[in-house]
Amino acid sequence: MISIVTPTLWKAEELPYIAEQVLKHDKVGELIIIDNAKDDRPDYGFLSHKKVKILEQEQNIFVNPAWNLGVKKAKNAKICLMSDDIVFDTDVFDLVHDQITEKNGVIGPLQNSIKTFYVKSPLMELNPIKDVDNLWEGFGTLMFFHKKNYLPIPEELKIYWGDTWIWDYNAIQCRQNYALNKFCLYTKMRTSSGLFKETTDEEEKKYLSLFNEMYQNNFKSGNCLSNIIAQKVYDLIKEYE
Questions:
Q1: Stretch 30-44: mean pLDDT, rounded?
Q2: Reduced to 3 states, what is the DSSP secondary structure of residue 155?
């Protein structure tokens, strides 16, 4: 079974629809809602579903700390981090379920999967990622991984770089990361995070030093399956030095 973690400020109009869809799926064991705006919580019907767990926060803890909290509280080893402003084909849970293992890294959509419309994705497939040029924009909207392959995101990073952190940690551990291909995911992007641009600009400056520490402490020697990732890791470290 899969535990879904979704932080929200209740500003995304897509949330009630996609929540109802994922809760119907037999491979979804729970939907953990990190409520970052308890005073604004709507009276959505899905909130009373037996699979829903609400973790109410006294104030906005932001997305990366919310992911850390949700993963920690999840009862299942198979984790999905789902943005609250997306719509996608929930048959993806059938596709990824058996691939969410300790051996594999993180799974997410490529940039070319992000659309301004939604259609079913009957041809969707998983492919090992060997080229990151088409990766980052949208990858963090829907990520799947095994709980044991998650290194908590540093508290200095509140909003952005969490998906990069998860990606890089698995890459330097020599676990293969995968892309959802021939997949359609509708989103307006940054419904909540776009409200905090000043914070995100500051975090960009912090990431390389935090990554360098992670790299030094967690690098696993051996042949990484994705050579271009290993090269980019090396280039980042040399640039930082």
A1: 97
A2: coil
